[in-house]
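Milestone M4 deliverable, item 7.
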Amino acid sequence: MTLSDRIIAGLRTMLLIQEQVTRLEASQLHFQDALRGKTEDHERRLTRLETIIEIAKPEGAILRIAPARPADDPG
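Output delivered:
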């Protein structure tokens, strides 16, 4: 194998590797977008579940920004 054949084979290999890297980057970006969407969806669901649990408490929903009532205050 001559030097020029080795150089051409090396360039072909480099081009094939570059194509694979480009495809992997594209699929990684797609996976990242899909994962971000699922994470945001779970975040919204968790917020809804927390709200439902808060409303279902025996004492009802308590605003988190409301001042705390003393223990002897009936309502």
